[in-house]
Amino acid sequence: MILITGATGFLGAEVAMQLVKQGERVRCTKRRSSIVPEILKPFSENIEWVNADILDVFALEDAFAGVTQVYHAAAWVSLKQKDKNPMIAANVAGTANIVNLCLDNNCKLVHVSSIAALGLAKPGEVITEDTHLDVSTETDGYAISKLESEMEVWRGIAEGLDAVIVNPSLIIGVNAGDEGTGQIFNTVRKGLKFYTRGTAGLVDVQDVAKCMVALMNSNITAERFIINAENRAYKQLVEEIAQSYGIPAPAKEAKPWMMNLAWRGAALVAAITGKDPFLDKIAAQSAVTTKYFDNSKIKKAIGIEFKPVSESIKEICSVAYK
Predict the structure, then answer these.
(1) CA distances (Å), 114 to each of 13, 293, 315, 316, in order?
(2) What is the Rg, in whole angstroms, of the alpha carbon atoms belonging to the chain?
(3) Which residues of the chain carry a pLDDT beneath 70?
(4) How does pLDDT run across 36-49, given as a tens digit for each residue?
(5) Among 242, 249, 236, 141, which Cα is nearest to 197's?
(6) Distance in angstroms (rounded) separating the CA atoms of residues 155 and 178
(7) Nearest in space to 318 (alpha carbons), one of 170, 205, 184, 174
(8) I need a labelling partner for 280 at 20 to 30 A (CA). Which of 67, 81, 182, 231 fits?
(9) Which positions are tagged coiled coil (predicted)?
């Protein structure tokens, strides 16, 4: 039996779907309030859903019955400053619970981290699996939570756990909807006027899931892997999205000082309305930062050929028109 946490999310749902299509027995955890994704409803007879929050050890113990492989994709993601400390605590504690139960049940673990848990490379160099985040200067609560969650996995590995860690870049795909990277496409479609000079790593959700399954079924252990198809300038990305939608591309550059004003304004609006900010400090800084991610390690490990980002963009935009 294969257990997946976070299967109601974008990536977890894709992993579950690929495994079911391969004829695997799959059990997925979810919170009682979570809704089963549309893409998994046709496979309801092949997926066993259990209500088990990753912070509920007793429910998780029951979910682990008969399990030999675990994909841990569940995590709390929030931009709100008030959520920073509880988010870090929840993500780390939840991962610790998964690690401990994997040790107890002799399960192999594929843990989903993020490129947010990687540090910045020196000018002119690419970011690799050995590029470390400086927690002493990092202010992004999500990044800290992912790095400290990785530390729990490494702790488990030191205790004999068979595990690998994946660090996906920005995950795109048809089923993202309006959340996560889906917001980028939705914003461009609505008539984005500005572009920024930063760069980003991008990868199709199908490829991330393929990498995870391949690593699970390999003899590879005690390693972390960047999962990234291509590095793209944000300007090129939004221009290509606009072209696929058949609309004018953003023509004005948003300078760093403009982004600083924007996130401060968003924070003020969020404080007044109580809603999530449409732009936070981390996202604003990232939009004008140049980052290049090295994917040579995962390509060498499993021989994957990534789907071109342009192909993914066309698929996403064609579906959004319907």
Answers:
(1) 17, 12, 24, 22
(2) 19
(3) 257, 259-264, 266-270, 277-282, 284-285, 288, 320-322
(4) 888 998 988 899 99
(5) 236
(6) 36
(7) 174
(8) 231
(9) none
